[in-house]
Amino acid sequence: MKEILINGIRIRQGQSMNIELPIAKLPTHTLIDLPIFIRSAKEEGPVVLISGGIHGDEINGVVTAKRLLEEMDESWKLLKGTLIFIPLVNIYGFLSNTRTFPDGRDLNRSFPGSKKGSLAGRIAYILNEQIIPQIDYGIDFHTGGRMLSNHPQIRVDYTDKIALELAKSFGTHYVVNSKYIEKSFRKAAFKAKKRILVFEGGESMRLDDYSIEEGVVGTKRFLASLGMIDFSAEPQETIFLKESNWVRAKASGIFNSSIKLGDSVKKGQILARISDPYGQIKVPVKSPADGFVLGLNNLPVINVGDALVHIGNE
Ligand SMILES: [Zn+2]
Around ion ligand 1, which residues have CB less than 5 A away? Predict the structure, then answer.
């Protein structure tokens, strides 16, 4: 019988349990712990992690993971296997509206971490030692940055055929080629021969219903493809993008885009205009190639060189 072992606590097949893993105390001596929710079916099967908030200001991902946990508890019948939910990994960043930890580090660049390191390293160590060994697959929910919104997309390294097949079963509109990044959670899992899909949707510090819905439905398709839940959704055409690039500002000024996230664009098409605040100078922003709008800067005031529109190419 398969069992999950986290922090010395055994969760047998068929059991459900909520664990609070002690992390460290705040300077106020308030104890911070990491809540982990385990839901297991009687029948053995894959172990899937659903995580959000590795970046503490990416609230959309936290809410997506939270919604999946709510649906699990309210309406899903788990047919086999085990789900491990960690909806909010970076509690510190969540409290302070920041991507990073109080040590200034990005958890997603801190793997494999260390037991006695600073906070980001310690959390990376816990995920690397206690969670990755238990799972077969994971879906990690992220968003774009501040004022940078992403169209819902799964990011995988196209040289990893297994991950690519998993991304197909998620069935979101766009799948984007993204190389394994050193010291990331995704790479740490890959080194352990596990696969974590990174979902990107929306922007930090903002909730985006469409991205949440795409994340929830995609996860359900993914779990159904593993035979873990009963679910069938309208199939959606998935476009596989081999590369993606940011179109950058050729001038500073007021940025006014005329395209939407998810749009298909043609080479030479005007995506936006940059003007001075007086209407004397107008600079068009053109698409360098045919492609799809994956990400968009929502800041109206921009400087030369700023990333404006993220275009993916087939
Ligand atoms: Zn992120």
Answer: 55, 58, 142
For residue 197, how far is its CA from the centre of ligand 1 (angstroms)? 13
Residue 147 makes CB contacts below 8 A (sequence gap 6+) with 203, 297, 298, 299
CATH topology of domain 3-239: Aminopeptidase (3.40.630)
CA atoms within 13 Å, Cβ hemisphere of 242: 3
C-alpha of residue 279 to centroid of ligand 1, in Å: 37
Which residues lie closer than 8 Å to 9 by C-beta, 6 or more apart?
A: 17, 19
Task: Tell me 303's DSSP state.
Answer: -
Among the CATH numbers 2.40.10.350, 3.40.50.300, 2.40.50.100, 2.60.40.1120, which is that of 242-313?
Answer: 2.40.50.100
Cβ atoms of residues 162 and 151 within 8 Å: no
Which DSSP helix (H) or strand (E) runs through 120? Answer: helix 119-126
Q: How far is the CA of 45 from the centre of ligand 1 (A)?
A: 29
The 10s digit of each residue's pLDDT in 62-104 is 999 999 999 999 999 999 999 999 999 999 999 999 999 999 9
Both structure tokens of 107:
């958890």
Tokens of 29: 């001596």
Calculate how far, in angstroms, residue 58's C-alpha sits from the geometric centre of ligand 1: 6
Say which residue the tokens 């993914």 belong to: 222
